[in-house]
Amino acid sequence: MPLLTPYVASRSTDRGVLESALTVEFAASGPRLTYRDVRPEDRDRHGNLWVRVDESPQPGPVLYDSLHSTRQRRCMENLLCQVCAQPADRNKDGWLFMDWRREDSPPTWPEKSLTTMPPLCTEHARISVRQCPFLRRGEHVLLRVRKPHLYGVSGTLYRLTTTGWISTENGQLSPYSKPRYPGMLAFLLIRQLRGVTVAELP
After folding, report:
1. I need a labelling partner for 127 at 20 to 30 A (CA). Which of 21, 142, 146, 200 fits?
2. Which of 39, 26, 22 shows the shortest CA–CA distance to 158?
3. Which of 186, 180, 189, 188 is closest to 31 using CA atoms?
4. How many structural domains comprise the chain?
5. Among 2, 19, 11, 56, which Cα is nearest to 156's?
């Protein structure tokens, strides 16, 4: 069986926004990061500015360890399978997710775990376990999640200087429950897994 190409995986030819495309916008709440040619779809309903991803007409090799921001966000917002972008599997116990313990996992893990990985359909959960080298090591758990709560975003944090914005930190977490960072360029959407049950492969 040929290797799957997950819908959310990046390609080596994908390119993020150039810093020269960023500028300062003076909103009612104060200065914030924006694009020089900002579009309505560049911000989510929380006011976060999202990275733009340029794709080559001739895609390069798949980067299995890197997520495509736009596709990841679409799957997370709509609870679509990360492999095929069709509706993820759901039964009485909830949606089908995979997760693994990380250094920053909460003591209650897998309950209240934060994840950037969208859910899965049954077919692609089975294939992923067979094909993915990381999953074959058995470090993952299969979960049913009744309440995959939209938690926030992560991305690059920029600081405003006299000469413009400069990046200061990658992978910065910005929960929706706290004030938004005006210098945040969001890259990934995060859900918190609530109402978790450890499950068997369907």
Report:
1. 146
2. 22
3. 180
4. 1
5. 19
Alpha-carbon distance values, 169 to 102, 159, 164, 188 (Å): 20, 9, 16, 14
DSSP track, 91-119: ETTEEEEEE---TT--TTTTTT-EE-S--
Residue 1: inside a domain: no
**The length of the chain, given as a count of residues:** 202
The answer as to whether 3 is a domain residue is: no
The closest alpha carbon to 143, from 84, 182, 101, 188, belongs to 101
Q: Which residues pair with 50 in a beta bridge?
A: 186
Q: Which domain holds residue 135?
A: 9-198
Closest CA to 21 of 45, 56, 52: 52
Nearest to 193 by CA among 119, 115, 140, 135: 115
What pTM value is reported for the model?
Answer: 0.90
What pLDDT was estimated at residue 3? 74
The verdict on residue 2 lying in a domain is no
8 A C-beta contact, residue 147 and residue 94: yes
Q: What is the mean pLDDT of each run of 10 residues along the chain (202 residues)?
A: 82 84 85 91 93 85 90 98 97 95 90 97 90 65 96 92 77 92 95 95 76
pLDDT of residue 122: 95
Give the bridge partners for 143, in sequence order.
97, 198
